[in-house]
Design goal:
Helix content is 57%, strand content 12%. The protein is built from three helices and two strands, in the order H-H-H-E-E. The chain crosses the membrane at residues 21-40, 46-67.
Length: 107
């Protein structure tokens, strides 16, 4: 609507979304476990803890899917193994351990 993701280019929105989901999952799981464990005899607290556990699991699943998006959006380029055409046949001085070899080939 306001397209803030296009206005604030400094923020990596995918990583900030991952951090939000991880923190949310951790907080929901911790507080829900506390409610379930200490809620003996209080049905409302146990029910809230169970719903909190479900919300924490959903946050964890959201974190997992965001992580997969980040992993698939990485762009890896393979290192060139052959000699590029621009350097073929040229000789340049190469400095090896303080000794200059004026006629050493690049490729």
């Amino acid at each position: 609507m306001m397209e803030l993701d296009k206005q604030f280019l400094v923020v990596n929105w995918l990583w900030s979304d991952l951090i939000r989901a991880v923190i949310g999952a951790a907080l929901y799981l911790i507080t829900s476990l506390i409610c379930v464990i200490s809620g003996a005899g209080d049905g409302a607290r146990i029910a809230g803890g169970v719903f909190g556990l479900l919300a924490g699991i959903l946050f964890a699943y959201d974190s997992y899917t965001i992580f997969l998006d980040i992993k698939s959006s990485r762009q890896h380029t393979d290192a060139p193994t052959g000699c590029p055409q621009i350097f073929s046949g040229f000789t340049v001085p190469v400095l090896l351990k303080g000794i200059v070899h004026p006629k050493m080939n690049i490729c």
